[in-house]
Give the backbone structure.
Amino acid sequence: MKKRIITLFAFLLLTIATIVFLAQNHSVSAQGQDKVVPHEILVKFKDGVDPSEVGKAHREIGGTVSHTIPGINVQVVSVTKNVGEAVSAYARDRRVEYAEPNAIAELFEVVPTDNYLTNQWALHNTGQVFDTERNLSGSNDADVDAPEAWGVTQGSGTVYIAILDTGINLTHPDLVGKLAPLRMKDFSGSGLEDQYGHGTHVAGIAAASTNNDVGVAGTGFNSSLMIGKVCSNSGSCPYSWVANGIVWAADNGASVISMSLGGSSKSRTLENAVNYAWNKNAVLVAAAGNSNNPSKTYPGAYTNVIAVTATDANDRKASFSSYGSWVDVAAPGVEVFSTFPNHPFVLENPANNRDQNYGYGSGTSMSTPVVAGVAGLVWSTPLAGNNNAKVRAQVEKTANPVSGTGTYWRWGRVNAHTAVTVNVQ
């Protein structure tokens, strides 16, 4: 009886070992099917093994060295066997330190479910036709790599992007969930509702509700919106209203202040407001203007503001964009798809050929909230260091040096993914 118990115990141990082996082998096999390079493995021979013995091992097992990774002396080996069998064969060889599949890493990009994402070449450009009616398309990767950035961070609702503009459509389904009632203020005396259309379009670019099966995606993804109406219903924006809006945004917790507006006149009042907000740790972003010349626009030209010009779907400077050594970065600003009011608005008139709810807009006004959204994403990462100067550096110094960099603008066309992953000083 004792012998029978011992035999049964040995059988159980053998069974358990077999299950473990099969589980491990299944894992390798599964990787070999869809997570590894087929018929290719990585082999590291033990230190001190004679090269002739290395060659002998490859001949015996049937592998061919494609190349060796320098520094760590790991060989990339082509095999005729399936990956699991080849790994096992090399791993059993006494001369081998280890063998493993050549696994495939993935970009952790997040492609949201918003209906019109294909129209949003600024966020994700594969060269697709983004406007079928006009047959408009662009160039692959002439975008800010938003899905790749969203794979790293989807922003935070505690990061507030203040849109200082013509107000907002308060009932738009792609915006209403992003509005903080205690963080909206009208400086125009005409009410917060956007009758002009500009502010609603800008707000959607910066931080529309994202991954909600509705409309468009916002660059800042989960970032929240603050709304300061500093322009009239006809699109006029007195400096006093703008300055008031900047101070209000800074005092009420804005991490980013986005201003798709500007004037040709310097103003100490406007500059003082900008410096006040900067000293409150806000990142300020403003449009460079649409004059197609190097004349400065304010507040964009002030030192403590990121001045933004526009590029098209082929990474070229927009024909209308202001430019010069005072401009900091570029961002997509031609035929940018976003939200519009769900009621009649000034910019909807037939001459502009725009529809209610959603549509295209062009201008450095459109490129500015793209940069604001990227800054919002950076604020949600440890790279921000709770410091607006660091956030600004992340946005500017990680930009792609596309054509025009160093001539039309300083740093490049912004890249959300590098901004949230590459730590700059």
The chain is about 30% helix and 20% strand.
